What we know:
Elements: H1 6-17, H2 21-47, H3 49-53, H4 56-85, H5 98-125, H6 130-149, H7 153-158, H8 166-177, H9 184-217, H10 228-268
Amino acid sequence: LMLVDTVHIYSLISERFGIPSLAAATLCSFSLCSFIYVSSGVLSRIVSTTYRTLEMKDQKRWNSGATRGCLGFILALHGLKAYLDGVPNGDMVEGRDDFLMHTASFALGFFIFETRDSLTMFLAHNVMEETLLQHHLMGIVLFASALYWQTYVYLACAVLAQEFAAPFTHAGWILTKCGMDGHWLWEVNQYILIIVWILFRTLFDLVIGYQIAISVLLPPFRFLDGPLFPMLFCLIGFLLLSTYLNPYWLQLKFRQLARRNRRFAKMRAPPATSPPQAPSPLDSPASPPTTHSHQD
């Protein structure tokens, strides 16, 4: 996808339907999410016995996981390209180009779909994942404000590289539902997830945080020149993501792996055998009577 001229595709859709190309990117993202979600449900019902036995809420989680995994990987590629291309014109506030603007629009469609999906789960099944909903609402506000004020677009797009962990997160959940959490494949996926998480979330937080700090603390203090709301939201949102949400989710991954290892270690352990006990005097057979000989 990094080799495909996505901006040109959005332009063709814009000309065909008479809508702005940024709106076309948002609609493409939302439509792609919907297509993957529906396709996951149809194909999984055909090929997976496990899927057919799940409750409706878990079937929806399955489809949502497939959608987040696919779109997360696409967004991560865009975010990595944005980071590797660097800050346009060295200006983190107003530096932007067509690729960044359309990437922000594409990401907005994804977060709108995900927020709708989270709210649907709550209304239909009374299942509320607070941190996930916070993450998606933050995404909507971040990309909507970046597009409206056309500021901090690079920062918004570069953070998308953190979504490289999404496919492994949801693959692990699906494997667990299939009863494969004792299989080596689940364990390999979990270790890859933790490594990718540390690389593209924990360490990437430090890299982006360094870029923000340079722009905030060193002359000409350019980061603080942007509009007040997006500037404050970027600072507070990034601080919340890097110091609370990402560490919280990472420790959940470690705890999940530790619980699984303890459970299967107990299952593989040989049954404890009690040490042999000395026979009780009451249980020993009676000794024969002794006879005494008398000599005359």
